[in-house]
Write a structure and sequence with these properties.
single chain, mainly beta, Beta-galactosidase, Chain A, domain 5, nine-stranded antiparallel beta sheet, five-stranded antiparallel beta sheet, 3 helices, binds beta-D-glucopyranose
Length: about 400
């Protein structure tokens, strides 16, 4: 989708935003009108889920870059940014309404994934001597929080103007036992669109019983624009010396071998497709790249550049910063090979036409004592920050 860039000086943007926030407070919300005329944050209906109305929030920065986020699943529906010629395009896959995320069985497009992103072997884990059983929704394993994970919940939304840019704070209380996980989990996820075209995601959670968690965002990117074809020509760098090889059901084997001399060495920018067809057992197990890379050994809260992706054609460059120990690379191996999926704006999506870089702790950590701990205890606060920043090169 091409949109003209909006140019505004910062003082003008702030003045408009403050005025609009005032208007939003004063005026009555209606279904058909945005609550504010602010160029920075707009709100509109996005459909109905289980009889409850959900909303779409558009965050816009002074460069005209936009992130559209719904409080259904905390899904990033659009991320619109310029290419090297200033042409705008939406670089994430998605659907036009909340209802379509349900009816088309979204493969986790853009959502907040939890309570435990990625897989837990056989849907079982033991914590403090007690065994817990979760849904095996990705037979034979548990995937992305189960049958009704955080991606399918309606979150409370608070749009806010912050000094870092327009933001949307989402909150969700997951009751004790939901999807089989122990503890009442109070979760907030704040999306902020920064002045340097970063979509910053700050996660926070507390619990009233010991539990495990692993939150991430599951955006599917195509830097040429969603629906523009393969991503195999995108050049990827991942700042990881090691990775977690998997079995045929995608559960980590437990060792952390070097990427040296393997198709998993992305320490220097390399086309995603350059080695994906190699005769390699790990590529067979993942049906392509669907692996966690080891950024560091523990959750130390330090933000660093973990990956870059460059699309030579459009010139768009994605930088990923994260404070998580792991980064899952998934390249749309399960997008349809024959009949394409119908997405937003009449676009179609097929096999390997998007990539995900999911900042997280390692898969199956609740069952792997040597992996960074995914355990959260009462009195502790879980935090996680990821930034997806769009530039041109
Ligand atoms: C997983 C894939 C899975 C996909 C679901 C990714 O995070 O690694 O195996 O198919 O999510 O869309």
């Amino acid at each position: 989708m091409k949109r003209p860039p909006i140019f505004l000086t910062l003082p003008a943007l702030i003045a408009l935003t403050l005025g609009a926030c005032q208007d939003a407070n004063d005026s009555q919300k209606t279904d058909s009108e945005p609550v504010s005329d602010s160029p920075a944050i707009q709100e509109e209906p996005f459909g109905t889920i289980d009889g409850q109305e959900v909303r779409l929030y558009t965050l816009t920065n002074a460069n005209g870059v936009q992130a559209k986020i719904t409080n259904y699943g905390g899904i990033v529906v659009s991320f619109i940014a310029p290419d090297k010629n200033g042409e705008m395009a939406d670089v994430v896959l998605g659907f036009d309404s909340a209802d379509e995320y349900v009816s088309k069985e979204s493969p986790y497009f853009g959502c907040i994934t939890g309570r435990y992103a990625n897989r837990i072997a056989k849907g079982k884990f033991t914590l403090d001597g007690q065994e817990y059983t979760l849904a095996t929704n990705n037979d034979p394993n548990h995937l992305h929080g189960g049958d009704k994970g955080f991606d399918k919940r309606i979150w409370k939304a608070e749009p806010m103007e912050t000094t870092d840019g327009p933001a949307l704070k989402l909150s969700y209380t997951s009751p004790d036992g939901e999807e089989g996980y122990p503890g009442t989990l109070e979760t907030t996820v704040t999306y902020t669109l920064t002045a340097d075209n970063g979509l910053r995601i700050d996660y926070q959670a507390t619990t009233d019983k010991p539990t495990v968690l692993n939150l991430t965002n599951h955006s599917y990117f195509n830097l040429g624009g969603h629906g523009s074809g393969t991503i195999l020509d995108h050049e990827l760098m991942i700042a990881a010396d090691r990775y977690t090889p998997i079995d045929e059901t995608s559960i980590p084997l437990g060792d952390l071998p070097s990427v040296e001399g393997t198709p998993f060495d992305f320490r220097k920018p390399t086309a995603i497709g350059a080695r994906i067809g190699e005769d390699n057992e790990q590529l067979k197990n993942g049906l392509g790249y669907d692996h966690n890379f080891v950024i560091k050994d523990s959750r130390d809260g330090k933000l660093q550049l973990v990956a870059t992706v460059h699309d030579p054609e459009s010139g768009r460059l994605l930088e990923v910063e994260s404070d998580e120990p792991g980064l899952q690379l998934y390249v749309g191996n399960f997008l349809p090979k024959d009949e394409p999926m119908k997405g937003k704006d009449g676009k179609e999506y097929s096999y390997r036409e998007a990539f995900c870089l999911e900042a997280q702790t390692f898969p199956d950590s609740p069952n792997q004592a040597d992996f960074p701990s995914p355990v959260l205890r009462p009195g502790e606060t879980y935090t996680q920050t990821t930034i997806y920043r769009l530039k041109v090169k």
